[in-house]
Design a protein that fits this description.
mainly alpha
Length: 149
Amino acid sequence: MAAKKPTKPATSGDFDFDSLVTYPHIWESATPKSQIVMKASDNAVDSAAFQGLLDGLTAAIAPLQALHQQAVENLAPTVREIRQNHSRDTRLIEHTLDHLLDHACIPKGLACFKSLCRYYWQINPHATASYIFAYREMWDSGAANEPST
């Protein structure tokens, strides 16, 4: 008795169960799950779910923002003192810049960081440039798109 040759998959109207067994790929979706992309225009997109996610993230980030703000408020008097006293204490200046770099993600932190960098440039331009590059690596998303020279 000869083995049964596989037949083509059944079309609508001609259902052949043997073809389902012979061609197991029929059981699978034509598009792998990893290639399915939801578009914003699809009815399946639930804007309420996205809004809930955004609200949850905002609530989770709020304490972090408050910590950044508190740290900058604690560092701002040190920056003013360094500038007003014309301090040349490189250890203090660099220590303060290190801390400000961590908090340059908020406007007041960035303003303090820039202010101290402008002051320190007159004392040690090489070290100041390294802080500016560190800021760009850490916080400046526009620098990632610029070609490196």
